[in-house]
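[Q] Does anyone have a clean C-alpha cell version of this?
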Amino acid sequence: MTTTPPASFILTIACKDRVGIVAAVGTALAAMDGFILDSQQYADPDADRFFMRVAFRGAGPAFPDDLAGLRARFAPTADAFALEWDIVPDSYRPRLLIAVSKGGHCLNDLLHRWRTGTLPVEIAGVVSNHDSLRALTEWHGIPFHLLPPAEAGKAAQEARMLELFEAAAADQLILARYMQILSAGMAHRLSGRCINIHHSFLPSFKGARPYQRAYARGVKLIGATAHFVTTDLDEGPIIEQAVERVDHRATEDDMIRIGRDIEAQVLSRAVLWAAERRVFLSGARTVVFR
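[A] Here you go.
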C-alpha cells in the first residue's frame, strides 16, 4: 500500500533588506506547524533588497487546511516586514503561451520536456507569424494560432497575441525564437512575464545571419542567453547563459547546429527555473535560486 505524500508549498519573498526576516519567517511557519523542506535566501547589497524561497509542508494539527488559510496565517508577518510575497502549491503548473517563427528547435525542446513530465508547466498554446510549426504543435495536442499577416501591421499582431495570452489565462509568454521585436508597449505590459532567447553574439553580430558573420570573424565561443524582455532590445535581466568552445575547424553549419542546441538548453532551463519560482527580479539583474 502506497502513502500519498503530504502537499507541499512554495513561499517567495522580496523586500527591503533588514534584520530578522529569516527568523520571522521561520517562526511564522513553525507556529502553524509548517515543516521547512528547503530554504534559500540572498541579500543584494547593491539594491538593498532581500530575496527568499522556502519549500514547506504541514507537520501537525495547526497547519491550515487550505491555501487561503495558509496565506491568512502568514499575512501578519508579511505586513510587519512589508514583504512582497506569495504562497503557491508546489504542484502548481504555470500556463505558458509560446511564440515562434520558423525555427523549431527551441519549441521542440520545450514540447518534449513538457510531454515527458520534466518541465512542470501547462502549455496553453503556440502562436506564430508563420504556419511552419503548426504540424509539430498540433501533433502534441497543443492549439496553434497564426497571427495576422505582416501586412496587417505589428499592432494587429500584438493585439492578437495579447488577446490569446489573456484568454488562456497565461502566466508567461515565451519567445522561443520569435523573430519579431516586441513594441515598447507590449514589453512594458508583459514586464517580468516574458522570457526571450537569443544567441550571445549580440550585440557584436546584430541582424540577419549572425552565424555567418561570426564564422567570418573566427569566433572561438558560441553561446546563448535567456532573459526577461524589456523595452531595451535584448538587454533585459539575464536568467541563464551558456557557451561552448569552437575552433578553426568549425564551419558555419557547425556553428548553427551548436548554437541551436545551446539555445534550446538555455531557454528550457530558464523556463524551468521560472516555473519552479526560483527567479527573482532585482533591478537590471536576476536572483536565481538553483
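[Q] Thanks! Anything notable?
[A] Residues 13 and 85 are 4 Å apart (CA to CA).
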